[in-house]
Every structure is written in C-alpha cells, then in structure tokens.
leucine--tRNA ligase
Amino acid sequence: MNITHAKVQPFPRSPPLHHPTFLFSSGQKLPFPRKFITAPIGRSSSFASILCKKHTLLAHGCFGVSRSRIRSSVSEVEEEQKQKSVVMKRAYPFNEIEPKWQRYWEENRTFRTPDDVDTSKPKYYVLDMFPYPSGAGLHVGHPLGYTATDILARFKRMQGYNVLHPMGWDAFGLPAEQYAIETGTHPKLTTLRNINCFRSQLKSLGFSYDWDREISTIEPEYYKWTQWIFLQLLKRGLAYQAEVPVNWCPALGTVLANEEVVDGVSERGGHPVIRKPMQQWMLKITAYADRLLEDLDELDWPESIKEMQRNWIGRSEGAEMEFYVLDSDGRETDMKITVYTTRPDTIFGATYLVVAPEYTLLSSIVSAKQSESVEEYKDIASRKSDLERTELQKEKTGVFSGCYAKNPANGEPIPIWVADYVLGSYGTGAIMAVPAHDTRDHEFASKYTIPIKWVVTPNDGSCIESGKAYSGEGIVINSSNMMVGLDINGFSSKEAAHKVIEWAEKTGNGKKKVNYKLRDWLFARQRYWGEPIPVIFLADSGESIPVLETELPLTLPELDDFTPTGTGEPPLSKAVSWVKTIDPSSGKPATRETNTMPQWAGSCWYYLRFMDPKNSKELVDKAKEMYWSPVDIYVGGAEHAVLHLLYSRFWHKVLYDIGVVSTKEPFKCVINQGIILGEVQYVACKGTDGNYISADSANELGEHFQEIIPEERVVKSGEYFVLKDNPNIRLIARAHKMSKSRGNVVNPDDVVAEYGADSLRLYEMFMGPFRDSKTWNTNGIEGVHRFLGRTWRLIVGSPLPHGMFRDGTMVTDEEPTMEQLRALHKCIAKVTEEIEGTRFNTGISAMMEFINAAYKWDKHPKSIIEAFVLLLSPYAPHMAEELWSRLGHQDSMAYAPFPKADPTYLKESTIVLPVQINGKTRGTIQVEKGCSEEDAFTLASQDEKLSKYLDGKPIKKRIFVPGKILNVILDRQNVKVGVQ
Ligand code: ANZ
C-alpha cells in the first residue's frame, strides 16, 4: 500500500526564503546532522570549524579551489569524524548486538508460525498494511506502525498465543511502470530491487515477521487467486462491462490514473486531459452497500473511519418522480425525465428541472436553437472533475435546453436546464430544482432569474431569511392541487413526503427510492503493470468469455516497449501473440482483454493468503482460515480509511457468500497510526527594513520575510516561542510533512546506523500517543538512546577502558526486597496495561521510572532484572535478547512467558494523611496504612512544614481518625497560632 502523507500540512507554507543569510539556515539539507553544529566546541571544535568553512566555501564558491575538490576532502574528514562520533556516542554496543540477534532469529526461524499450529491455543493475527515497495525505501513513517504491531506480536507470543505476523508487498503500481516508460527497465526488475531493499531495511529493524510467509502481489502464484476471485465475481454478475469516462490525454496518447492528473492537466508534461467514455470493467460493490453499512456497527474501528465509510456509502431515502417533457406547443409528449429527490415534500416548489451535461437523453430534449450552446457547455463540463463541479463555493453555471416539462404536482410547465452541478453518475442524473429550499438551486435560480416558490415554513413559525434558501424541514404551504388529488398543506415535511410518494405510486408519477453515493467500482486500468483480467472476446461476435479456472494464472506477457500506444489502447495490446488466442470451448479465434486490474485488487484479500501462502489448490485452506480469521488488529495509515478498507470488506463479503471465508468481516480492529512530520522549525518574521517583527503583528503587515532560527536561539514563553535575546519577538513554530524537496526527510537507515534499531523503535513509540501526529526531534532519539544506555550499564556495568563492556551481568542472587518487588510489579502492571491499550509511549515511561528507581538500589537481584528484561523485550528486542542470554538463558526469549503483575505488590502500603492544626489543614504526612495516633503525631512534629506550627506549643487535645485525619488542637489561651 502506498502510504501518502500528503494530506497533512498543519502549517501554512512559508513564502520563499531569499535573504542571503538563509544560505545554510533555510531548511536545505545540511551535510551534517544539526547536532554536530551545536556540539560543545571542546568536543568537536575542529569539526565545527570545518563545517563553517565548508559552508563559506559552498556559499561563495571562492578561494580558487574547485567545489568538487573541496567536497571530497571535506567528506573524508566528515566520515572519520562521524565514525569517531559514533564510538563516542554509543551508549551501549548496539552495533554488535543488533546484527547478532537478527542473524540468530533468521537462522533459527524464530518467528515462523508453523502450518500445523496447536489450534487449542488462542490465536492473534496482527497485520500491517503491507507497503508499496517504492524506490525511495522506507521512511520513518513506516516503522511507526510496524513497531507497534511488532510489540503486540512479541507480547502476545510471550503470553502463549499463536501469533500470525506476516509481511508482504503490494507490488504492482504506477511508479515502476512510469520508470519503465522512461528507461525501458522492466517494472519487475525495479520492483524486485525495491522489495529487496525494503526487506533488508525491515530486517535491520528487528521486526518479528514470519518471513516464510512473505507474499508479493506480482507473483503469478499470488495473482492466480486475485484472478480467481475476479472470475467468481463475474460468475455472480458482480463484474460487468460499461461505458464510463476515463482521463484521456490526447497529447500523451494515453489514459491517465486520477493521481496523474493535476488541475485538469497531465502531471507529466502539463498537457490537457479530458473525460472520455471507454468500455470498462466494473465491480458491483453497490449490491453490497447495505451490508457494508450495517456491519460497520459491529466493528471495533475508530468511529471516524466508520463515519467516513458511512458517508462514502452515502445511503439516502427519497423518491423518483416523473416529469413529462412538453413539445413546443406545450403538449405532453411520451418522453419523461425521472428525477431523484430526497425532498418529495417540496414538489410544488420545483420551478425548473436540471439534467447533467452527460444525461443520456439530453440530445433528444434540446431544441435546435439551443443545441450549439448545449454542445459547447457539455465540452467545457467534460474537462472538470466531479469534485470541481460539486464544490459549493464554485459559481453555478448552466445553459437552457430550450425545452419544458410538466410539474406533475401543480401541472405547471417548468424549464429544463443543463448544469454541471448535477452529476450524471448520481441518482438519475436529473433533479427537480427547488430554489426556495435548496442552496445550490437558489443560487442558480437567482443567477438565471428563475422563479423561487416557498413551500415549507420553519416549524417554530420563524421567518425565512430573504435572499437565502430555507433547506430545513418544516410545515408545508402552497402545496395543494385538487385536480390531481394532492393536498399536503399543513403537514410536516416528513408526513408530506410520505403522502407525495403514496400519491405518486398510485398515479404512476413516481415511486419510493433508496439511493447510494457509492458507485460501482471501476475495475480496469489501461496499464501494463497489473494483473491481467482473465477474459477473452470472441473475434466474430465480441462476446466476452471467462478464462477457465484451470488456466489460471493468466500471466503477464513479457514486453520490451512500455510506451503508450497513442490510441488509448492499453500497452498490453502490443503483446500481439499473447492477445491473439483461441476460445477453448468453441475453438473460435478470440482476443484477450488488454486492460489490467487496478492496484487495489491485490491488496483486497492478501490478509487471507498469509494464512496459507503456499496453497496451490485453494485460495486458503478452510481449517486454517477458520482458525486465523478475522485479523485481530490491522494497523496502517488513515489514508486507507475509505477505499482500501471498503474494497476488501466487499470482496470478503463475496467470499463469505461463496463459502471461502467464515467471518462476515475481515478486520476486527483497525488502528491508524499518526503521521510523523519533520523537525519543528522556528521562524522569525522580518520587516522590509530587515528588522525582526513579532509573528503576531507580522500577519497584519503582509509583506515580510522569514528567517529560520536555530533551536538554541529560541525559548518558550508561555504558550509561545520567542527569541532568546529578544523575548518580544514571537516566532512561528511549524512542522512540515517530510519531503525530499524540503530536505527534512529522516532516513531510518541513518538513525539505525547512529543510534541502533532499538533506539529508533523506542523513539517512534515514545514520540507521543500512537494515533496522533507528531514531529521528529533528534534530541528525543538521543533521550531514549540514553535510557537504553542506562539500562545496559545498570545490568552489565560501566564500560571498561576503550569503551568495551564486560561479559555477563552485574545482577546478584539475593532475594528481592519488598521495595524492589513493588517497583517491578508496578512496572509489569503498567507495561501490560499500556501495550493492551496500544498506549506504547506510557509503557515506556513506566520502564524509565523503573530504571530510575533501580539506580537507587545497591543490589540488583536477578529475578527482578530478568522480569524487567522480559518487559523490555517487545520494545527493544535486540538489547533484551542480549541481556537475556547474558543472564544465562540458552534460548531466545521470544516465547518466554511475559511477567504477570502480582496484586499483592500493587497495593499501596502507605497513605497520605492530612494534618489539621486547630481544624485547618496545614499539610500532609506519608504514613503506613495501619499507623497509630502516636506515630502519626511524631511524624507530623518532624515534618518540616508542620513542625513550625507545633514546635513548643502546648497541645489541648488530638483528634485522630485512622487512615483519614489527624487534627491537633492547641491550647489557644497560651499561644497564637502562626508561623513566625
Ligand atoms: C429536490 C430537493 C429539494 C432536493 C430540496 C434537496 C432539497 P443526497 O441526500 O445527497 O442523496 N440531487 C439528486 N440527484 C443529483 C445529482 N445527480 N447531482 C446533484 N444533485 C442531485 O441528495 C439528494 C438531493 O440532491 C436530491 O433532492 C436532489 O435535490 C439532489 F429542498 O431534490 B433534491
């Protein structure tokens, strides 16, 4: 799946930075990590000066030395310094430990889930949205979700579950094909190269995937079953062909995917793109609309995703009403326009009809006089996307058809208009326009001076605002015509709608209708790099015939030339000998379908294949599916909240209906991880005179420059950030989506090289709540790296000279103290609770607290430390495995039981007791639960704050309620209470 983070841009883009001092403070990628620049002079002063020099040289390109020369000499020094710095920074020997344990896991296939698992044990299927292996490799957004699922997988294994935690590749896709067009490199080569890179990156992060189950959507053994599902859909009438508009780019001679069209022109070359109807394969997802809607209620998914799915399905109840077209003499013809309305109660207010520009009957309605303007209008509309057409803010446009229809309720002739705010693809492609009660119609009628007739008043009798539509429900007025037997005056909108439908059904003027926004799924792409659609067409009749199931997989033919055909024919049509075939049943010549499936296809059902990835006889074995279904937790980006999840739910339901799967829904729980934005930038505004201006006043000024301010020159003041040396200057703090062009991309490989995979994993989990967006912060990763270093040194001991570490550990065999047991069990309880609640960051805080407490102990009993290492292992598995083995264990800890919190140690043994002096609470003391009055009084007299009230004062009496309060009454006659 292609993870795009494009939607999030929480802060406005800054104006271009053009002040000369921005040369190397302007967010361009610095050749060294920023922390080197800020390092104390004593530690890396020579380096810092090299850095400055380099910048100077690069900025001015002077000193008569060629740039490349300077670069190469600088990079040698840079490399040397970097290595030194890694040794210096290394809080523990992660660069030895991590590859060692990765090798161990790989060699021992530690995380393999055998085919014949003991099914009497509970199961846990934890799945990541599998990635599209792009050429850019992993970005730090990937490990966020992957670390979370890895923690869950490791945790559940240790709790005795059979865990299914697989990984694979959503490997068909546009970039590989575009690259093939540009370079002639076969998309398979590029894709396999990218997959290899992704796989090794994932392995370097220590994720516990069962690599024996790896699948890739481009492998024929996999797409055989994607094609098989298509045939099942075809068999059940759920796949069909229809003429639908596609993005046709005449200049490039190709059909473009939506993502290749930007603002009406091709992304490549900026050529105009038009909508052109073409014969396409469609999947009838609309047949499942109600079930897709109803079954959402049972799912443990974020409410926001469920709501997005509901909106996408967009169920609405209304009526279809018939409006007969009038001839030029005003007489009723046989031709009728059926409209879809959700407000039949407003029918008396329908003062015109609108048909979409692509309305099929349009040409037979349009008058000769209007035909040219209608054709012109249709042409303009064909260049607009549905989104552009329906945008509320856009000015409405339209053209009169020259023709009228009869409003069946009041018998009045009303004009028929053509306007693109009505879509051909929704309802019937035609509407009855009620300008008094629909905002868009109101705007349109006002523009073209069409009558506006009020037929509903608000329930509370309030006045209708003039110049605006009243779109709410209310009491119906002006709506009676006894000639046709319809009188709805005085009824509520709901009752009136009901009555109109009843009347329409009785008189043949219409019927009740449920509509969905959900459209059938356009299931064909004019691309090479996709699954071939297993259908052939007979040469004589053009009849479509499904490829026999026994002939699957229908493999993609080899192709050398991936360039578009220029005719709109898909590139596969170039594979002439593949296209030409014979229908096996009739022996007649036939041609193969040359469209391929969209990228969504492979990702619709991959979670099922992971259950049984090597099965060549069935998509998935029944027993295996019964055991592993449904996916217990599915983690991925929110950008897949609608389409991917809806499409897979649809396929799953079809597979359920034909008995391939045993559950109605594929994913029990879905979680979206937040987005990781680049480091926060602090920006100061400058006036045209070059002086700083506070960000709050800069907005009003409009004209200003911006300068990025290094973190060390920034302080927080209340809610804002200000310049350290001038707190009156408020700064803008902003974070951007990571992108190459901004130079703020953090590469996980670099982080792993510098701090280790465990630090990266821990940091990504510690950044903040898992579901929230968060900003990358290099100091943050240093923080968790230090924590791991502290943990290591606590257990293994301080480093020996030369930075080496001793073997074994420093733990002792003593019995743990009560304090130690309490600290441990508190940590176990918290970590367990937080992993179960997917609050991974607070789980880490609990471990940090434990380590802080443990540093205060003289001795570190093995039993306590061992349990802690087990707690740490899902988060930082490399370090945990190393410590586990140093603690004397032969096997991996991957299946060692996860510690259980003992409630005896969780009970708080002390309480906070409020102390009053003469009835006024003056402070509190910490006492043992069963503490006596005498002990409480002694503690109170020793307390720094309370002693000031009590010292040397005569006491009249003491009131003590055990566990609740101690009240000391002083002898007032002799003393004045107060603090001197
Ligand atoms: C008359 C009317 C009066 C309407 C009124 C609304 C308010 P939903 O709820 O989204 O289903 N409509 C129908 N087909 C359309 C199309 N193809 N393109 C654009 N608009 C279309 O909306 C249904 C309402 O949207 C319908 O009810 C219709 O306008 C409009 F006071 O009919 B109504």
Q: What stands out?
A: The two ends are 71 Å apart (CA to CA). The pocket of ANZ is lined by residues 316, 340-343, 346, 422-423, 426-427, 429, 431-432, 434, 437-438, 471, 515 (CB under 6 Å).
